[in-house]
From TrEMBL:
Protein species of origin: Ramlibacter rhizophilus
Keywords, sorted A to Z: Hydrolase, Metal-binding, Zinc
Region feature Disordered, mapped onto this chain: 192-212
Compositionally biased intervals (Basic and acidic residues): 201-212
Pfam families in UniProt: Lactamase_B
Name recorded for this polypeptide: MBL fold metallo-hydrolase
Length: 212
């Protein structure tokens, strides 16, 4: 079975998730924005073999620790979509602007496209390109687990901000309704901040996207 543990990191309480195959203990970390020693201590405590970094997008609280973690653990960086290249290149400036520890730019080992997949042990997750919050934002969906790691596209009771450079509100709404909702009402999503919810719950109650 694919398992995951979500650990809020950085002053922004960003939901970094460690995902792993419980048979092989092969693991990936999604959005290592910072607090790397905490993340690595949890990996070690569970006896996991950290093999990949997956990124939903390149805002500082999600990607700030990526270059250091990749270097320290010799890990490939998978994602996001190449439309977020300018955000990656601006990571040092983002860190200074928001008072984060120094952050380094990097080049992902593999950019992701809509319809791609990522694999961990025997498990495969589908990649959906969901622009709007950032132009290169992607989501990782496990149909078997009925879980989706959605970064800052959708939250319990809210949606991602679109007032950053190249944010687009209409595009974000389209990403949610056209690419997330078809994953099914029962799918539970892990957002970039705050508690988990389900797509069905948000379709019924979220004031930004209900009844869409």
């Amino acid at each position: 079975m694919l398992r995951y543990l979500t650990i809020p990191v950085t002053a922004f309480a960003q939901n970094c998730s460690i995902v792993w195959d419980d048979q092989t203990l092969q693991a990936a970390v999604i959005d290592p924005g910072g607090d790397l020693d905490r993340l690595l201590a949890e990996v070690q405590r569970r006896g996991l073999k950290l093999e990949q970094i997956w990124l939903t997008h390149a805002h500082i609280d999600h990607a700030g620790g990526t270059a250091e973690l990749a270097r320290r653990q010799d890990l490939p960086v998978i994602g996001p979509h190449e439309a977020d290249r300018f955000w990656i290149e601006a990571l040092p400036q983002q860190g200074a602007m928001f008072g984060f520890p120094p952050a380094e730019a990097f080049t992902p080992t593999r950019w992701l496209q809509d319809g791609d997949t990522v694999s961990l042990g025997a498990h495969t997750l589908n990649v959906r390109h969901c622009p709007g919050h950032t132009p290169g934002h992607v989501v990782f969906h496990s149909p078997d687990l009925q879980r989706a790691f959605v970064g800052d596209v959708l939250f319990a009771g809210s949606i991602g901000r679109t007032d950053f450079p190249q944010g687009d509100h209409a595009m974000l709404i389209a990403s949610i309704t056209q690419r997330l909702w078809p994953m099914g009402d029962e799918t539970v999503f892990i957002p970039g901040h705050g508690p988990e919810s389900s797509f069905g719950q948000e379709r019924r109650t979220n004031p930004y996207v209900r009844d869409r």
